[in-house]
Amino acid sequence: MTGYVSSRAQDHTVRIQKCHQHLRGAILPSTLPTTHQIDRIVAIQFIVAWAGESAEEPERLGWWQSDLVDQIGGGGFLKRLLPGTHQWASLQSVRKIAQKVDSKARLQLPNPDLVRTIFFWGFDIDHRIEDRIRHLKAEQVAPQDALELPFELGSDWSEDTFLNYLNELDVDGSYTEKREGRELKNPEHGSQVEAIKQLAKALAPFQASYQLPYFRVRNA
Fold it and tell me: Could you tell me how far CA 153 lies from the centroid of its own chain?
């Protein structure tokens, strides 16, 4: 009898722990981001995706094996293939590769659908991001003109310039180092834009492989 009671008590404790794990985390706005906010999210995703390429000359951070933006690499091929939209095609392609690396790391976490990363914001927001990119691409306005990009993607690479860009983001990027990645200590509750800036800032210091910045949410 004592063993039975002890077993039930342990089960109850486990259920409570799981409940607490589910409840902890940021509560993001229930409303979808505005178009302007989506543009700012897209800009950061593009910047990180470009910086994370392996490329050839000059070599970048090497978090994903691609060279799709620079003119001497895949960007030049896409320019010949798609002269009107090659910049968007390059950034879309490298973003997809970055998403796969990001997703593989996120899926190692418990309850991955309740985790937010640079490249994962849940179905509704991710769908709006994809729609917005397609819309901007169809307008054939250069990404540099359509988005708030601090420097031209595809220009000369400088790790110091990218690091300075991250350091100048006016957010708290502090995190706890974990086996699965870097969990934000104080995720922003009120804005997806501020939250993605925190995630981007948590990329530093750089490592040879992608160190997943993430935080948990209560409302998926």
Answer: 17
Tell me the pLDDT of the chain (220 aa) as tens digits: 555 444 554 554 444 444 444 445 677 766 789 999 999 999 999 999 999 998 777 789 999 987 666 666 555 545 555 555 778 988 999 999 999 999 999 999 999 999 999 999 999 999 999 999 999 999 988 899 999 898 888 778 899 999 999 999 999 999 999 999 999 999 987 899 999 999 999 999 999 999 999 999 986 6
Instruction: Note whether 209 and 111 are within 8 A (CB).
Output: no
What are the sequence ranges of the domains in the chain? 35-216
Give the Å distances, CA to CA, from 101 to 13, 15, 49, 86.
Answer: 35, 32, 10, 23
CB 211 within 8 A of CB 183: no
Judged by DSSP in three states, 73 sits in: coil
Q: How many CB atoms lie within 10 A of CB 73?
A: 19
Residue with tokens 């950034």: 91
